[in-house]
């Protein structure tokens, strides 16, 4: 009786380990690095959030769209700054930021113009 419980516990532990590994791996991508750089230097983020002190990716704050054989990530990160906090949602296509939006605590969605 206890052997099946042990197997399920091992399976749950492995699933948890995979979730943590995927979360860590997403933070190591060049797309995530580009997003961090955009958030740090974007004037709209500076106006709304202030000087950025923290950018955090929640455990389930990312996804991957698979189209035409390529994998395009999308992120939803929490940003904390000197004036407050917000959430930035960004979608990538072919390794470049295709769309980015700052969501304020009041629920306002402010599009971030991406410098090219």
TrEMBL record:
Keywords: Membrane, Transmembrane, Transmembrane helix. The chain crosses the membrane at residues 7-26. The keyword Transmembrane helix applies. The keyword Transmembrane helix applies. It comes from the Bacteria. This is Uncharacterized protein. It comes from Thermomonas carbonis.
């Amino acid at each position: 009786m206890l052997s099946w419980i042990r197997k399920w516990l091992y399976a749950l532990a492995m699933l948890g380990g995979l979730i943590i590994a995927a979360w860590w791996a997403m933070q190591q991508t060049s797309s995530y690095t580009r997003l961090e750089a955009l958030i740090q230097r974007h004037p709209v983020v500076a106006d709304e959030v202030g000087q950025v002190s923290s950018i955090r990716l929640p455990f389930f704050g990312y996804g991957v769209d698979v189209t035409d054989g390529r994998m395009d990530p999308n992120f939803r990160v929490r940003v904390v700054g000197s004036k407050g906090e917000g959430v930035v949602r960004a979608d990538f296509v072919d390794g470049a930021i295709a769309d980015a939006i700052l969501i304020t605590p009041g629920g306002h969605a402010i599009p971030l113009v991406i410098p090219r």
